[in-house]
Design a protein that fits this description.
Layout (H helix, E strand, L loop, with lengths): L4 E6 L6 E6 L8 E5 L7 E6 L2 E9 L3 E6 L13 E4 H19 L5 H18 L6 H12 L15 E8 L6 E7 L7 E6 L5 E7 L10 H9 L4 H9 L13 E8 L2 E9 H11 L10 E5 L15 E7 L8 E6 L7 E6 L6 E7 L5
Parallel strand pairs: 2-6, 3-7
Antiparallel strand pairs: 1-2, 3-11, 4-5, 4-7, 5-6, 8-9, 9-10, 10-11, 12-13, 14-18, 15-16, 16-17, 17-18
Helix pairs in contact: 1-2, 4-5
The structure holds a DNA duplex (15 and 15 nucleotides).
DNA sequence: AGCCTTTGACCAGCG
DNA sequence: TCGCTGGTCAAAGGC
């Protein structure tokens, strides 16, 4: 199978690069039918009229490959309908989100930019990981909520939709809701079938968007800059950041997300994983052994620095060149524990902290 | 006030 | 031509 498309993106600061090799010979369909059922996350079924293809996603260190799994011939025409598993679409969405974050992060200070890129890359890996099944449920519920909450208008596919009709079809079966893209002159429509239990039974997309996705500033907020916590939490749910990955190893480096002074989630990555990211992302000015995530709080004082569920003892302080705020060093107050952290205000935004965790709590 | 969803009516395609 | 089915319209009401 020859590469049909090669999309390589490199951000302007050389901090991260990721390439996608679209190996499958896919012609964009007029309609995409999205089934809510995906038994195996690594296998997707592509139905184009009567032909069936199986494709699998493989996530390598620096590339995502979609490779064909059987001998079906290439598609030589635009199919009328395109049936894929929801996970396929979600993986596509995850990659597009990742791309958008990289673009949006360009306007951030170098340090924040690198942190964002690093975290986004990690999230993308998670999103494409075969073990992450719960994302599907989350996305589904978002679609259900499309008609309930204005804030969910921009659904998980990144576009804004307006419902223009609903009808019960196939007597006794699921009601079908009709949406059109709210962007002026955009011809795209989607039809959503909702099962009895409120889950999405089927989503059918028609047409191609003739405009870019709406601004992802909200995603930016969700990732780092949100101060009310709600969208941040959605983000955390979206990427299933529950720290329960089976590949966690020791020693670990932790990155905590704190909003309004409360820890929302903590995730751990292995040093080897982190090195992979570091290799891809280049040297970070933040740390060489740690993953750092800025913490944003609405009204913070230094007492919040320790409000992460552990008791910390301050053991040092250092004035950093170019930053009016000193960096404080803490060690876990449990004498046997080797966990440490460094906390520093962001010079550009004194309400924000960058906290770097080292080591792991053993208690 | 403006945007949105709801819902019955209308229309087109098809057998 | 008729009836069925599915997609769209648009008025009304809600948020």
């Amino acid at each position: 199978m020859q590469n049909n498309n090669n999309i390589a993106t490199t951000n302007p600061k050389n901090a991260s690069s990721i390439s996608i090799a679209l190996v499958a010979n896919v012609i964009r369909p007029k309609a995409i039918r999205l089934k809510a059922v995906a038994n195996h996350p690594t296998v997707v079924a592509l139905k184009c009229n009567t032909s069936v293809q199986e494709a699998s996603f493989r996530m390598d260190k620096e590339s995502i490959e979609i490779s064909e799994g059987n001998s079906e011939p290439s598609i030589l025409h635009r199919p009328i309908a395109h049936v894929v598993s929801s996970l396929t679409i979600l993986q596509k969405f995850a990659y597009e989100e990742h791309q958008q974050i990289l673009v949006d992060a360009r306007s951030l200070p170098q340090e924040l930019y690198q942190v964002n890129c690093k975290q986004s890359t990690l999230n993308l890996h998670r999103s494409l990981s075969p073990s992450s099944n719960t994302k599907q449920r989350h996305y589904s519920s978002n679609y259900v909520n499309d008609s309930k909450k204005t804030e969910d208008k921009k659904s998980s596919d990144g576009y804004k939709w307006r419902k223009y009709g609903q009808k019960r079809v196939k007597k006794g079966e699921f009601p079908r809701a009709y949406y059109r893209c709210v962007h002026p002159a955009c011809p795209v429509k989607k039809t959503v079938e909702i099962s009895k239990d409120g889950e999405i039974a089927e989503i059918i997309y028609r047409g191609d968007h003739n405009h870019p996705k709406p601004s992802s500033k909200s995603r930016d907020k969700a990732f780092n800059l949100d101060r009310n916590g709600s969208t941040h939490e959605k983000w955390m749910q979206k990427f299933n950041l529950d720290g329960n990955d089976s590949h966690i190893d020791i020693p670990t480096v932790s990155a905590s997300f704190i909003t309004d002074g409360r820890e929302k989630a903590t995730e751990s990555v292995t040093i080897s994983q982190k090195r992979k990211n570091d290799d891809k992302l280049g040297d970070s000015t933040v740390a060489t052994k740690s993953t750092a995530v800025p913490k944003l709080m609405s009204s913070i004082d230094d007492s919040h620095e320790a409000n992460d569920g552990y008791s910390w003892q301050k053991y040092g302080k250092k004035v950093i060149k170019g930053n009016p705020y000193p960096r404080n060093y803490y060690r876990c107050s449990d004498g046997k524990c080797s966990a440490r952290k460094r906390v520093q205000r962001v010079s550009d935004d004194p309400r924000s902290f960058i906290t770097i965790y080292e080591g792991k709590h053993h208690h």
